[in-house]
Amino acid sequence: MGSRSAVIVGIGRTAYRRGSGRTTLGMATEACRAALDDAGMPVSEVDGIVCFSTGDSVIPILVGYALGLDGLAYPLEIKGGGNYASIVVAQAVAAVEAGMCETALVYRSLNSLSGHRYGRVDGALVAEGHIQYGAPHGYLVPGQWFAMMARRHMHDYGSTYEDLGHVAIQTRAHAANNPHAILRTPITMDDYLDSRWIYDPFRIYDCALEADGAAAVLVTTAERARDLKQPAVRMLGHAAWLGAGGLPDQWPDMSALYSANVGPRLWDMTGLTPGDMDLACLYDCFTYTTLATLEDYGFCGKGEAGRFFADGRATYGGDVVVNPHGGLLSEAYIHGMNHHFEAVLQLRGQAGERQVKDAALCLVSAGTGPYGGALVYGRD
Amino acid sequence: MDTSVAPPLPVANPLTEFFWEGTRAHKLLILRCQSCGHFVHYPRPVCERCLSEDLAPEEVSGNATLYSYTITMKPWHPFWVDKVPYVLASVELPEQPDLKMLTNIVECEHDALEIGMPVEVTFRQVAAELTLPFFKPVGS
Ligand SMILES: [Zn+2]
To answer: What's the mean pLDDT in A346-371?
Structure first.
């Protein structure tokens, strides 16, 4: 084992659409090839591929095979949801640094609208294992869990529907500057409050924008990165926490998310603070996830995130630009991999109209409820 | 409207069958460690506190307080088409701190829902082989 370090050298993605008409293999190979082109690296150098999926996507060896590779030294598919969107990148960095592979692609490819939808129950649902204590009562989709967490947060900290609305409004305003985002029409508080209920306290504008697409990042050694096309971006630290064993109400404090555990460890590990972050790509499967993680990561106190958004502290000219791309709420639900694309683009100074000035450090979070992780990216 | 449709049915296993037998008899049974007295819910094979495997179901009071809830407006499964909006909840049992279970709150106006309110168990048969433990406001 040497002491070599790994960096992010390329990013790629497909178009994000409401209905792709494509296979997850087709989208994964496009995003991976785009990441290789971005870096100026031939596919023949790839010997690792990492992804996460809930069983709804193509596995790494098939992507490698489709790209003309004879085999992979480090293929890894992690079974899980957006809570693994930072772990997969950390895993690729660790594998390259440990010498288990030289160059690794990390992708997430899914038809979250036209294929398996997390916000829907497909056919008969078998209530096995611990699920039998939820599904028979009508606990059927993840949003119901997080709605219940949001309700507890409202009780404990006085947060309001309007606080959630401020997150939706600001995130959409950011998406207006992003040609890749699906929803770009600004919304007002009246629009938000008039939008239809899904599961109180969540309305439709509180929920991620289910969509089809893929995003990928390319990881290799810092030494190899010197000869590539793009400035490298470095992962400065990663922390994760997956708690509560399946039923989210088994988490002792439902007003806090995984981030209450991850935040302090991430800052301790990196020696950085929330105040050092120029932008934050916060996993936002629901507005509440943005709100609660912003608090847990220490950008503001508990119960203050709504006001933080309302006062313009989460946008350009404020404390930290949160989800300049429009996040999962307005850009697309690419399960958090699109946050990594945006973070790297911003740190390379290539985000065009929505560029965060002098962006040098970015927090990227992944997951919600008791499950998730986060990392900090910095310019190398 | 198809009223014959059942909700997703629990697939009882050796760890959980006592619970569903209990609800059919209108008893709320929670697994309890026979070594240290710790309650374990949902049922697991080992006591999380002392790691004993000597666990047995015990009937609990059926009292609880509302820990949190959400009102589902959209039916995600045919069974709930004529039942929305319905209240999903986590209730905390007084037998032990943080001993929570998922349920539905019934016989309560939505405006009257309040975290911390006292509730009590009430059993309802929802399918041939399935009786669920719901909770309602105390005294309702
Ligand atoms: Zn015990």
So the answer is: 97
Nearest-CA distance from A42 to chain B in Å? Answer: 46
| Token pair belonging to A129 | 């294992």
Question: Are the beta carbons of A85 and A79 closer than 8 angstroms?
Answer: no
Name the minimum distance, in Å, from the CA of A151 to any CA of chain B. Answer: 6
Quick one: pLDDT band at residue B4, thresholds 50, 70, 90? low
DSSP A288-316: HHHHHHHHHTTSS-TT-HHHHHHTTTTST
Report CA torsion sign: A155, A160, A166, A172. Answer: positive
β-strands A103-111, A321-322 pairing: unpaired
pLDDT of A80 strictly over 50: yes
Chain B residues 69-98 within an 8 A CB cutoff of chain A: 69-74, 76-77, 79-80, 83, 85-86, 88-90, 98
CB pairs under 8 A between A and B: 113
Q: Is the bond leading into A370 cis (omega within 30 degrees of zero)?
A: no
Whether A247 and B89 lie within 8 Å, measured CB to CB? no
Determine which of A141, A199, A203 to mutate to test the interface with B (most B C-beta atoms within 10 Å): A199
- Partner A contacted by B4 (CB < 8 A): no
Quick check: A72 and A61 in contact, CB under 8 A?
Answer: yes
Q: Active-site residues of A: which are they?
A: 283, 333
What is the mean predicted confidence (pLDDT) over A18-33? 95
Distance (Å, whole) CA A32 – CA A68:
12
Architecture of the domain delimited by A6-116+210-225: 3-Layer(aba) Sandwich (3.40)
Chain B residue numbers touching A133 (CB-CB < 8 A) = 10, 41-42, 101-102
Residue A1 has pLDDT above 50, yes or no: no
Domain extent listing, chain A: 6-116+210-225
Model pLDDT, residue B2: 44
Indicate the average pLDDT of chain A: 95
Q: Show residues of chain B in contact with A151, CB under 8 Å.
A: 68-70, 115
Does an H or E element contain B39, and which?
strand B39-40
Residue B6: pLDDT band with limits 50, 70, 90: confident
For residue B7, which residues of chain A lie inside 8 Å, CB to CB? 135-138
Read off the pLDDT band of A2 (50, 70, 90).
Answer: low
Average pLDDT over residues A324-334: 98
φ, ψ for residue A4, nearest 5 deg = -70, 155
What residues form DSSP beta bridges with B101?
Answer: B91
B13 in contact with A at a CB cutoff of 8 Å?
yes
The pLDDT of residue B102 is 96
> Which ranges constitute the DSSP H helices of chain B?
17-24
Question: Residue B33 Cα, ligand 1 centroid: separation in angstroms?
Answer: 5
> Could you tell me the distance, in angstroms and rounded to a whole number, from the CA of residue B57 to the centre of ligand 1?
13
In the predicted model, what is the mean pLDDT of chain B?
Answer: 94
